[in-house]
Amino acid sequence: METELSRELGIEHAIFGFTPFPAVAAAISRAGGFGVLGAVRYTDPQELARDLDRLEELADGKPYGLDVVMPAKKVEGVTEADVEAMIPEAHRGFVQELLTRYGVPELAEGEASGWRITGWMEEVARGQLDVAFDHPIKLLANALGSPPPDVVERAHAHGVLVAALAGSAEHARRHAAAGIDVVVAQGYEAGGHTGEIGSMVLVPEVVEAVAPLPVLAAGGIGSGEQAAAGLALGAQGVWLGSLWLTTEEADLHSAALTRKLLAAGSGDTVRSRALTGKPARQLRTVWTDAWDDPAGPGTLPMPLQGLLVAEAVSRIQKYEVGELLGTPVGQIVGRMTSERSVQAVVDDLTRGFERAVTRINRIAGRSAT
C-alpha cells in the first residue's frame, strides 16, 4: 500500500491510525503504518511528554504523529473556570437526575474526573504543541479545522507536515488556502466528529477540490478492500480510528465497554451532540437517547457540553454502568468482532488490499480484451 505520501513519510503502508493510546500508535508504526496519538485528553503537558517518550521508545524509530483539537482563531485569556460558569444549572440538574436514575456512584473524595474535553482551549493546546515540537513528530493533525496560521508556520519550521480533517469540499478548500499539507476527508460513517456526507461521495469531491494536495480517506474503512476503494477514489492513504479500539494493545480500562463494541452492529451508532456539543458518532446508549430527546434540555455548544458531562462520563466508565456506557466509534464497529493485535489488523488490511487490487486488475484485463 505505497503512495507518494507514504514514501514521503517513510512508511511501508499508507495506513494512518488515530488512537488515544500510545501503545497502539507505536504498534501501528511498527507494523509499517503511521500511528497518530490523540492529544485531546491531555490537560497536563508533562503527561503528554511522558506518553510521547513512551510512544517513541515503543515505535522503534518508526515515524509517528500527533492529533490536537485547536480552533483556527486564537481564544486567549479564557480559563476553564470561565467556561464552567457559563453552564446553566438546569443542565447540571439534568445530568444529576440521569446519574441518580441509573444508580451511578459518586467518585471517591478527591478523585478527579479523568475525562475532560479542554484540549480546544488556547492555553492547553499550545502547551501540547510545546511538548510535541520537542519530539520527532512527522505529522501534526488538527480535528477542529485548520490550526492558527502561526501554528502551521511553526510546524513547517520544524519540518512537520500539517493535516486537517474536512467533512466537505468547501472545508477542504479552506484548509488548502491555510497552507495545510494533507487533508483528511472524513465521511459521515466515521467515529467522533463528522459531517453529513458519506465517504464514497466526499473523498473524490475533496480530492478534486484540493489537488494536488494529498488526501486521506476516513470513515467506513475497516478492511483492505475498503482501503483499496479509498485509494481508487483518489486518496493517498486511509485514516482509521475506530478499528484500533478493540485491539489487544488498547487500554479502554473497561471489559464491559470492550464487550459492547464487539457485540455492536453497524446500525448501533448514532451521530449525537451528547458528548461534546458537536455532532459526533458514538455508540447509541440510554445516555445519548436522553440528550437527543426533544423533551430534555438539549445539548450545550462545544466546549460547554464536554465540560458539563466530564465527571458523569468518568463515573459511568469507572463503574461500567452498562446502559449508559458508550464511546465514540464509527459504523465500522460491525466488523470489530474479536480482539486482535495491531499487527494482525494491519496484516488483514494489507491482505484485503492485495485481494482487491488483484480482482480489479483481473476485471480490467478482461475489459481490455
Main beta-sheet strand count, sense and barrel state: 8 strands, parallel, barrel
Strand content: 5-15%
Class based on secondary structure composition and strand pairing: alpha/beta
In N-to-C order, the SSE pattern is: HEHEHEHHHEHEHEEHEHEHEEHHH
Low-pLDDT regions: none
Helix share, percent: 40-55%
Q: Residue-averaged pLDDT, rounded?
A: 92
Shape: globular
**How many beta-strand runs?**
11
**Which radius of gyration do the C-alpha atoms yield?**
20 Å
What is the overall number of helices? 14
Strand order within the widest beta sheet: 1-2-3-4-5-6-8-9
Mind explaining what this structure looks like?
- With 369 residues, the protein is of the alpha/beta class.
- It has 14 helices and eleven strands.
- It has helices spanning 4-9, 22-30, 45-58, 80-84, 89-101, 122-132, 149-157, 169-177, 199-210, 224-232, 255-263, 286-292, 304-318, 342-368, and strands at 15-19, 34-38, 64-68, 139-142, 161-166, 182-186, 192-193, 215-218, 237-240, 269-272, 280-283.
- The strands form two sheets. The chain has an eight-stranded parallel barrel with strand order 1-2-3-4-5-6-8-9, surrounded by six helices. The chain has a three-stranded antiparallel sheet with strand order 7-11-10, covered by helices on one side.
- Helix 5 (89-101) packs parallel to helix 13 (304-318) and helix 8 (169-177) runs parallel beside helix 9 (199-210).
- The radius of gyration is 20 Å and the shape is globular.
- The mean pLDDT is 92.
